[in-house]
Each structure stands twice: as structure tokens, then as C-alpha cells.
């Protein structure tokens, strides 16, 4: 399902949370809304879901208009055919895993082949053998998988994820990122994922909308957002940016300690070195700016080093 947004806006009192926005979310792809708290990403997700009413604009699911202020159309959430996965797992503690997953089907009286569909959904998240257990008998990662199964059992055209991994510890969060991405690929379903975690966004997304102050600053592939940020807001929020001046930057992995012909040459002073296992992350001072680069060896505090950058590795914004 393709989601098309035209001229969408939303204010709370005098605060315009979403400024007029046009956007197309591609079918069978995972699109992430990325940005800091208060940037409008969750409000945008809630408007797509029908949980928040926009002030102006239109929302189309394929060719079907689900919201239009001008035409007086506002399809309720339960009729939009969407699956939801939230930060808190929101599982019923007194129900078995089977009944938790079946809840949406029973609530909408969509009970044809219910047992088959629930077991298929549980199998898709590798929990088919835990159908008779209760939420408190599962780990955090398993509970999150139950919420995934509950979202897909209704066979939605799109699943909305609102920071679903933020309640998990770091190791489990990384594991669940892999599983979530594999699930989306397997189902070939449209997904919209909200997060403030840039690593999370870069690792799972087909496209990312970087949001700030109610605007989409850049909407592109993870690679393009990292390698060719359109402005300072995007460059500073996604990845580590080493600023040469107000309009030129490079990324830590692009600097070399040994130069080639035509490389630009810089000298910088070492602030500190952090051992990362395979290499060191070195913090430098260059003309009042703090830079970060990688080195195969530890560099000493106050040591002055030579850095080299190929011209194609210097990004202008």
C-alpha cells in the first residue's frame, strides 16, 4: 500500500507541530520518521493512523482518500486497515499469548479461520510453541514479538511502529532490529517506523524522513542522508560530522593518516583516544572544532597529527 500525504498540517494551540507537508510513502518498503523529541514524528504517525485529526490536507491509501478536511472525510482508525506496534507491549496479562494475538480478530468479529491465522502469525515471529503461555512467562524480546504477531494477524496493508524497541536493552534491541527487518521483507508489507535513534533508523530503513521543527528536512535513502545531507540540521543529527568550515564536512571514517596525491592536508591536535577493539576512535581539536577520526594505533594526548582527505570525501552543505 502506498501512502500519499498532501498539504498535511497540525497545530496544538499556537504551536504548529506539523507544517504543510507533502510526502509519498512507498509500498512494501520500511520508511522511518527520524528526529528528536518534539519534532512532530509521532504526531505525523498518529494522523496517518487516524488517532489525531489534521488541521488541513489529505491522506490517501493507494487511491482511497482516508482524510480530507476540505471534503469532510475522516475514516476512523479501525477502518483504515492498519496494524499497530507501540513502545509498551500493551499485552493483556490475564490472557494467553494465543488470546492476545487473537484479540483484534475477535474484537472486529473477523473470526474466519481464527486458529489457523493466529498460529501462522505466531510462527512468523517464531513463537508458535508459546501460544499457551502468559506474557509474564516471556522475555522482553518475546513479548515484543507477540505485539508484532498481533499487528500482522489482521493482515494489514501497513504496520505502524511507534518507537517499539526503546524499552529493550541494547543487545536485545539490536537483535530485534534484525528480526523486524526480516519480518517486513518476508511479508512484503508497507511499514512506517518512528524513532529518535539514528543507528536504528540507518540499519533497518529503505527510506528515512529526517524531521525537525515540524518539517521533513530530508527524505531519502539512508546512504544518501549519510553521504549527502542537504543541510546542517541533517548532517548534525545523522552520524558524526567533522566540520572544516560552515559549509564543508567529512565523516570520521573518511580521514586517513597517510595521504595520496591530490588529498587535502590538515594538522590537528589529539584530545583523547578510545579503544574500540579493532581500532581507536580519536578525538581531535582543529581550529576550535572538535573532530573524530579512526586510527589503527593509539595516539597520545596533545600529539599533533597529519590528516588527509580525498576531495570526494568532503561534503558541501
From TrEMBL:
The keyword ATP-binding applies. The keyword Transport applies. Keywords: ATP-binding, Nucleotide-binding, Transport. Its EC number is 7.6.2.9. Residues 3-238 form the ABC transporter domain. Pfam families: ABC_tran. Gene3D superfamilies: P-loop containing nucleotide triphosphate hydrolases. PANTHER family: MALTODEXTRIN IMPORT ATP-BINDING PROTEIN MSMX, OSMOPROTECTIVE COMPOUNDS UPTAKE ATP-BINDING PROTEIN GGTA. This is ABC-type quaternary amine transporter. It comes from Eremococcus coleocola ACS-139-V-Col8. The lineage of its organism: Bacteria, Bacillati, Bacillota, Bacilli, Lactobacillales.
Amino acid at each position: 500500500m502506498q501512502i500519499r500525504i498532501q498539504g498535511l498540517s497540525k497545530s496544538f494551540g499556537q504551536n504548529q507541530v506539523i507544517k504543510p507537508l507533502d510526502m509519498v510513502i512507498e509500498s512494501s518498503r520500511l520508511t522511518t520518521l527520524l528526529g528528536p523529541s518534539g519534532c512532530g514524528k509521532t504526531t505525523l504517525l498518529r494522523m496517518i493512523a487516524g488517532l489525531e485529526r489534521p488541521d488541513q490536507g489529505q491522506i490517501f491509501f493507494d487511491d482511497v482518500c482516508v482524510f480530507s478536511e476540505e471534503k469532510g472525510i475522516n475514516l476512523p482508525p479501525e477502518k483504515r486497515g492498519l496494524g499497530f506496534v507501540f513502545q509498551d507491549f500493551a499485552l493483556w496479562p490475564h490472557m494467553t499469548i494465543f488470546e492476545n494475538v487473537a484479540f483484534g480478530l475477535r474484537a472486529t468479529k473477523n473470526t474466519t479461520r481464527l486458529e489457523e491465522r493466529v498460529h501462522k502469525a505466531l510462527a512468523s515471529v517464531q513463537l508458535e510453541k508459546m501460544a499457551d503461555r502468559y506474557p509474564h512467562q516471556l522475555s522482553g524480546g518475546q513479548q515484543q514479538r507477540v505485539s508484532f504477531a498481533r499487528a500482522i494477524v489482521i493482515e494489514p496493508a501497513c504496520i505502524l511502529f511507534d518507537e517499539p524497541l526503546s524499552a529493550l536493552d541494547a543487545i536485545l534491541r539490536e537483535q530485534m532490529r534484525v528480526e523486524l527487518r526480516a519480518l517486513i521483507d518476508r511479508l512484503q508489507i508497507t511499514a512506517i517506523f518512528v524513532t529518535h535513534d539514528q543507528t536504528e533508523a540507518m540499519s533497518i530503513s529503505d527510506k528515512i524522513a529526517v524531521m525537525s521543527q515540524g518539517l521533513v528536512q530530508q527524505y531519502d535513502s539512508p546512504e544518501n542522508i549519510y553521504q549527502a545531507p542537504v543541510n546542517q540540521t541533517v548532517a548534525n543529527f545523522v552520524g558524526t560530522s567533522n566540520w572544516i568550515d560552515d559549509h564543508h564536512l567529512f565523516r570520521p571514517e573518511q580521514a586517513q593518516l597517510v595521504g595520496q596525491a591530490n588529498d587535502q592536508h590538515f594538522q590537528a591536535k589529539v584530545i583523547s583516544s578510545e579503544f574500540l577493539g579493532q581500532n581507536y576512535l580519536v578525538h581531535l581539536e582543529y581550529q576550535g572544532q572538535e573532530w573524530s577520526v579512526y586510527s589503527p594505533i593509539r595516539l597520545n594526548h596533545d600529539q599533533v597529527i597529519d590528516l588527509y582527505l580525498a576531495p570526494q570525501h568532503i561534503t558541501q552543505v
